Automatic annotation (TrEMBL):
Keywords: Membrane, Transmembrane, Transmembrane helix. The chain crosses the membrane at residues 372-393. This is ISNCY family transposase. InterPro entries: RNaseH-like_sf. It comes from the Bacteria.
Length: 448
């Protein structure tokens, strides 16, 4: 699918909403005839849903319908370009047939635009490599509600558990607090089959689809689940690197080789002392070269490294190990381990943020019979991504978030304002908030 985007040199609210609208206008419309639903466009339905997640306000559309009746105008129209607000049920019915695949071009455009703006350079490590962390997350579970895309599990009680999960790839860096979420891949029965899908299969599908849209130099991060030869072989086939958690219990052959190398003096050791501000920690790195990932004649040879951190009492406070195709030496082993440890950001800075910081990722906004649950989940991730981009590039938004660093406080204020006041545009809203906080409006600022 071609990118249906206009050129934009700025990442402002209005510019980004315009790009989002262009993609939403391409959503397939499965309606026939001239019934009541035809009065609402697909883009109005999608923008209405997106506005709820973007403003972290489940009641936003209800407030705007009331405002439209009382004043003849509303913020859904002025801020998001929604010409007519469908009812919640109409939104669900219209969007149920839209696969989350329809959002792929938008995610790709945002990533490509960030690369062109030089933002990805700030995330580079290990000879200018970009780290992409992979992880699976469940966002819906029920014993009653189900659809054709649900995964199923029969419990010991005989009750069937229905669920939705996704692989959520994220660009991370050990030196950056922010993360860049990429388009998710949903774990769901494929091609109408009865066979259950699983995380590694979904991750491979994502790679098949997205590898060609990523920067050239990428290192993939993952937990021990991903540290399997078929997956590593596929990454090598794609010309990509990996740093994957490697546990002893699931890699017995590899650790037997490490023990043999240790006896032969072929495991190198590096120790460093680090002051935390409260105590000294000792970091002990061990690494070995060219050890087999599994017990087979065609075993992939990987490099292995381990970090053990002990406190002043000699107690171990951290230990983890990684398998990688990066060459390891005394000069870069700490950087490789640091990159591998950045994998946790996909859980803490992405998945947990989506669940606990106002995005309500695990809330059932609507399940549908086909794609609704997955599409809404992807829209929530998109809202998080757009918030991140705005904080980097929109001057007014950045100033407001600096003054109101708590997401809850910021969005509480936005919810209250958009309930009672109709703003002409995003710039009007941002300037109103800046003025109320006695923050000078930056010259030449434009939130749209």
């Amino acid at each position: 699918m071609a990118y249906p985007f206009s050129e934009t040199e700025t990442f402002t609210h209005s510019a980004l909403i315009d790009q989002i609208r262009q993609v939403f206008e391409t959503f397939p419309d499965g309606r026939s005839g001239n019934g009541v639903y035809r009065k609402y466009s697909m883009s109005d339905a999608a923008l209405s849903a997106f506005s709820v997640f973007f403003l972290q306000s489940p009641s936003f559309l209800e407030y705007q319908r009331t405002m439209q009746k009382e004043r003849g105008k509303n913020n859904a129209q002025s801020l998001f370009g929604v010409y007519q607000i469908p009812s919640d049920n109409q939104i669900r019915n219209l969007l149920d047939a839209v696969s989350p695949d329809a959002l792929w071009p938008l995610y790709r455009w945002l990533m490509r635009a960030l690369e062109e703006q030089g933002k990805l350079n700030e995330f580079q490590v290990l000879d200018d490599s970009i780290l992409v962390a992979l992880d699976g997350v469940e966002y819906f579970s029920s014993q009653k509600i189900q659809c054709a895309c649900c995964s199923t599990k029969t419990l010991k009680t005989g009750i069937v558990q229905y669920s939705h999960s996704a692989v959520t790839p994220v660009i991370v860096s050990p030196h950056q607090a922010d993360v860049i979420p990429l388009a998710p891949e949903f774990i769901a029965p494929q091609d109408g089959g009865d066979k259950q899908d699983y995380e590694l299969a979904a991750a491979r599908r994502w790679l098949e689809r997205e590898a060609g849209h990523l920067p050239r130099n990428v290192t993939f991060l993952g937990d021990d689940l991903y540290c399997k030869q078929p997956f590593c072989d596929y990454l090598k086939q794609l010309g990509r690197h990996f740093i994957l958690v490697c546990k002893p219990e699931s890699h017995k052959t590899l650790y037997e080789w490490v023990e043999d190398f240790q006896r032969l003096g072929q495991v190198e050791i590096l120790e460093k002392r680090r002051w935390t501000g409260k105590q000294h920690l000792t970091e002990r790195y061990r690494f070995a070269h060219q050890v087999p990932l599994r017990d087979s004649d065609d075993a992939l040879l990987v490099n292995w490294c381990e970090l053990e951190i002990t406190d002043e009492k000699g107690q171990c406070v951290y230990r983890n190990a990684f398998a990688t195709d990066h060459a390891i030496n005394a000069q870069n082993v700490a950087d490789i381990v640091s990159a591998g440890r950045a994998r946790w950001k996909v859980e803490n800075e992405n998945n947990n943020t989506l669940k606990t910081k106002g995005y309500h990722f695990t809330h059932n906004f609507g399940h549908g019979k086909k794609h609704l649950a997955a599409l809404l989940a992807s829209l929530i991730i998109l809202a998080f991504l757009v918030h991140t981009v705005l904080q980097w590039f929109d001057q007014c938004y950045r100033l407001l978030r600096r003054e109101l660093p708590s997401r809850k406080t910021f969005f509480d204020d936005v919810r209250a304002l958009t309930r009672y006041v109709c703003f002409d545009n995003w710039q009007n809203l941002m300037e109103f908030m800046l003025d109320g906080l006695n923050i000078p409006i930056p010259p030449n600022s434009d939130s749209g």
